[in-house]
Amino acid sequence: MLERKFIVENAAAVKQNCANRGMSCDVDRLVQLEEQRRAKLLEVEELNRKANEFAKSIGKAKDEAERNAKKEEGRKLRDAKDAAQAEHDKLDAEAREVQLLVPNMTHPAAPVGSGDHANVEVRRGKSEVRKFDFKALDHVELGEKLDLFDFEAGARTTGHGFYFLKNDCVLLDLALQRYAVDVLSRHGFTLTTTPDLARQEVLMGTGYNPRGPETQIYSIAGSDLCLVGTAEITLGGMYAEQTIDAEKLPIKLAGISHCFRTEAGAAGKATRGIYRVHQFTKVEMFAFTLPEQSDAMLEQLRDIECDIFDGLGIPYRVIDTASGDLGGPAYRKYDLEAWMPGRGTGGEWGEVTSTSNCTDYQARRLNIRSKRKDEKGTRFAHTLNGTAIALSRALIAVLENYQQADGSVEVPRALQGWMGKEKMTPKV
RNA sequence: GGAGAGGUGGCUGAGUGGUCGAAAGCGCCGGUUUGCUAAACCGGUGUACGGGAAACUGUACCGCAGGUUCGAAUCCUGUCCUCUCCGCCA
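The joint structure predicted for all components is written out below.
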């Protein structure tokens, strides 16, 4: 959410930014509504001031007759105030409705445009894309040989898009988590496991819409709780309504959670195997910073993601996401796309991580402030998030890149200790 | 799940319809005194939004949302959270 004052004062820039991001929102109307609201607020405050003044004088009235006469007058003032307040609230609600649709501003260096061609590849990982001298299998085929997944049972118990991990895949899943946690711990992150459910309020605060036909979020009937789509939601909510001392910033959190996504409207998209599923586990990074620290923090989060995948020996490319694909809260976003040899006909890049600087967009909704001792007042903190390891996608990358001609899969060196073996071999 | 108690400023804690944005203490900041430190004393000390060059000033906020009233921290309803006891359980 952008500040209304900012939108009013920078209407032209905000409009251009909406256009760059492919979002349609009526900035002109918002400006108009806000100006009307301001005028009405002055009126409300003036009436309220009078009414307060009057109410105080009643307490000092000398007798019952004077008191009753004054009460009548006080009631009129209060009624007038209530009427003005109602008009103000209506304007406020209308303005807010538009305001919530306005996306964050965009980093000046981020590419402008939309679609894959607009995104810019800024870097490659250390590992070369491997040349196979045999036909590379995809993770589903590998999973059959190694007995790693049970999709039928997932569908039976829960539905399409759910699955059981089995045998070595469970070990690999845990090893990847343990590996990521280890890296983040060394980078000074506070480790957490987070609730898998959150209040709607927190969802909204982080920029997710729990309702509507296109929502990605599952809701729990009979409560205002939702299953989280990512630990970003709970980690952001962790400091909701808090004012954080500047000396404590930046705060770097690592959160492990399950992630639930309805994937509404995703029918027909690459759905084979565990690439796009309704539930997966993720180790997430989250940071709260002072406003002047967030640009550098985004680079840091991106570099950690690179380290994690370099450490796994998986080839990837880094994408500087173009304005049209940033969504609502992100000011700038980098994605890591890992090479997945089993995708498409001869392998394809597939998104495995994403890191965003949301500046104060989420903090304003969640009311998270920073306070410096030498500074009057407070400023909204900046929030950033990034994927350390998203299981499912990371599992695919490991399985497909480390497969051998005989159907076995080597375990990346970095995981061997956590996994307790060097190779996953077919049951025969 | 059942019964009860409670949520007030950075903290402790008073306040049961009017002059309460809120006593007092602690903490913190500034000052005086003082070989130094401590103590003592004096003054200051919430946040947001609006007006003003500034001094300053208006409005709102006593978990949150409603309601009663001319007037609510105080009364009523709902809700969230915390604590205690019982039950159940990993």
